[in-house]
Structures are given as C-alpha cells and as structure tokens.
C-alpha cells in the first residue's frame, strides 16, 4: 500500500481532497476502504468514544491556550483547532515505548501521550527550558526549528534499531517543513538504514502565510516513494483513517520494514500563532468550506448514528473538557516564576567560565533597573 497519484489528478494539478483515503465522510457516514478497514476493525465502542473525547479535550485546551495568551499569561500559543483528528488519531495508535518528536502545534499528541496540565503551557509561558520531562511521556520538547525533529526522530530510530527494540520514533511536522533540507535528509537516512520511524506530515494548507500550493506542485505524499518510503495520503479530518494509517505505518516499522510517510490533509482553522492575523492573507470562504469538514463533528455524527454517543455522553465530555481547561489555567497561573538570571543555571552540568561571565553581566544589567517599579 503506497500513494500513487492518478493521471487525472496529475493533469488537474495538486489534488486537494479527491485522492485522500478516508473511512468517514464529512457527514459521518462510514465508507469502506479495503486496506484501511482491517486496521480499525477491533476498535471497541469504548475506544471510539475515547477518540472523540480526546478530540473535544484537545479543542477545549487549545481554546484555553489562546485565552491565556490573550490575557497576558502566555507569551505565545500555536492553535491546533481543526487538526484534532490527525493528532489524536495517530497518537492513539502509539505504544508506550514509542517516542514522539513533535512540532509546536501538536497539543492533541501531548494529550494522547498522557501530558499533565502544566505540560501544555510552561514552555509558552517561558518558565522552563522544556515544558515537561521528556522521559515521562516519551515526547521530545516541542520543536520550533522547522523540520529539525525529523532528523532527531530518525537518529532515535536508528538507535532503537541497534538496541534490538521494537519501539518506533515518530516525527510530526507540517506541509511547509517538507521544503526544509532537514526533512529530506532525514528521509534519505531513514530509507537507507530502514529506520523504524514514521513521518506524520499534517498538511494544514498553510505555512504561516504561504499556501501549500506554492511549496508543493505535486502531492506531498507522492514525494516519499522517491526516497524509497511507502506513503499514504489520508483525510486528516477523519480520526479513524488516521488511526488506521498510523497502525499500518507502526506495524511496518516494528516488523523491520523501515520508515513510512503519512500526509494527513487537514486545515489550520485558526491563526498560525497568536501573533498572526490570517485575514490578511486568506479568504473567509476557504475557512468556511473547511468548517464544513470539521473532524469532531464528523466522528460525533458517526458515533451518534451508531448509538454509541448521546446527549448525556456529550455533556459528560464537555464537563471533562472544562475541568481540563481549569486545571491547565491553574497550572499556568500558579507556576513559580524564577528569577531571570536562573536561565544560565543548567546550560552545562558543571561550572563554565563563559556562562558564569554572562550571568554576572546580566545580573548587573538587571540591577540597573532596581527601584524602577517604585518610580
Ligand atoms: C528553520 C526555520 N525556518 C523558519 C522558521 C519560521 N517559521 C515558523 S513556523 C513556519 C511555518 C511552518 O509551516 P508548516 O511546516 O506548514 O507547519 P504549520 O505551522 O502550518 O503547522 C516558519 C517558516 C522556523 N521556525 N524555523
Ligand atoms: Mg502548515
């Protein structure tokens, strides 16, 4: 199973939705896919409801992140609204020992890995060098350098391979990242060494203000086979397709078949970050069209039609989402802000003359402001 573009879509240009694989239509109706279906046949009603619940929780916590930034409690937030299915669906397929190398937008992946309330916000508040202990949830710090995590994931995977483990590394990045050298170099290495790594590209149609059509004249999933890496182009707003594709990719990696590439076609409903105003560069009509393909409403419609979710179940999920948001807010506001000069403290494990000098200079600089607040 790998992505191949049809002649029709080649002549029509980059296909948007036409050739994505899905098992749920936007209205929630189930459609068969002979290759994806076996990977999700065992999903119990409990697991299906958990997928829905985690997506609702992700959306709620994302809204809280935006609100906290607007209220001056966070320096920045990168919203993930609209991308909940690919994040929650792929994370659901992971095993405990797998290791995730995320971008800055993967709040739903963190949730799927068991993040604690503070884990979502401390880095964006500037409180710690990293937001969490990466060994607790097997997630590397959120990567800001576009695409760099693809190399880290590939290196980790090559290490796991040499250890004889069946753990898999996963790199999450965006459509824009696929233009970076790092991502392409990672794919060459992963392919050459058959590294147990899955590349998950969330094609949310925009790299800040750059539309994906500028960077990709050919579907992104279609590039991977050129590296010798099988790929799938899936509907990134179909949580079940995301679980299925991820299980396929993880299984290949665990059986020693090497890397896989998933292009999840989705849409960034909000701004790039809280510093961005997308109305300056994109049409409201485009956003509205994608609102009709909402990932949460889609799974909800399916679960309701199957009798697995009702109003009281929905109300319970909404309460859980509000409770999580309250915990995240409390963890954010209650964080102990350390003195600015402590940022020099853990650069090296042992004392370092250069860092000590910088710390002394910076402390003297801060002392120059003493008494300012009183004036
Ligand atoms: C190496 C590097 N170049 C440029 C930037 C600035 N930058 C931050 S986000 C971004 C766009 C990334 O787009 P995409 O990969 O599609 O991910 P998305 O933000 O849409 O999730 C850019 C260019 C950066 N952080 N790192
Ligand atoms: Mg993007």
Give a concise summary.
The protein has helices at residues 7-11, 37-40, 45-70, 84-92, 107-112, 122-125, 134-137, 148-162, 181-192, 212-215, 239-254, 284-291, 295-305, 311-333, 353-367, and strands at 99-101, 169-174, 197-203, 206-207, 210-211, 231-235, 260-265. Strand 2, helix 9 (181-192) and strand 3 form a beta-alpha-beta unit. The protein has 15 helices and seven strands.
Protein topology:
Blueprint: H1 7-11, H2 37-40, H3 45-70, H4 84-92, E1 99-101, H5 107-112, H6 122-125, H7 134-137, H8 148-162, E2 169-174, H9 181-192, E3 197-203, E4 206-207, E5 210-211, H10 212-215, E6 231-235, H11 239-254, E7 260-265, H12 284-291, H13 295-305, H14 311-333, H15 353-367
Parallel strand pairs: 1-2, 2-3, 3-7, 6-7
Antiparallel strand pairs: 4-5
Thiamine diphosphate binds at residues 103, 105, 144-146, 173-177, 204, 206-208, 268, 272.
Keywords: Oxidoreductase, Pyruvate, Thiamine pyrophosphate
Biased composition (Polar residues): 1-10
Region (Disordered): 1-30
What is the H/E string?
HHHHEHHHHEHEEEHEHEHHHH
User: Which strands sit side by side, in order, in the main sheet?
Assistant: 1-2-3-7-6
Hetero groups: thiamine diphosphate, magnesium ion
Fold-level CATH name of the largest domain: Rossmann fold
- Structural class from helices and strands? alpha/beta
Number of helices: 15
CATH classification, class level of the largest domain = Alpha Beta
| CATH homologous superfamily classification of the largest domain | Thiamin diphosphate (ThDP)-binding fold, Pyr/PP domains
Tell me roughly what share of residues is in helical segments: 40-55%
Q: Major β-sheet, in short?
A: 5 strands, parallel
- Oligomeric state of shown chains: single chain
Number of domains: 2
Ends apart, CA distance between termini: 69 Å
The low-pLDDT segments are: none
User: What's the average pLDDT?
Assistant: 94
Shape: globular
Share of residues in strands: 5-15%
Number of strands: 7
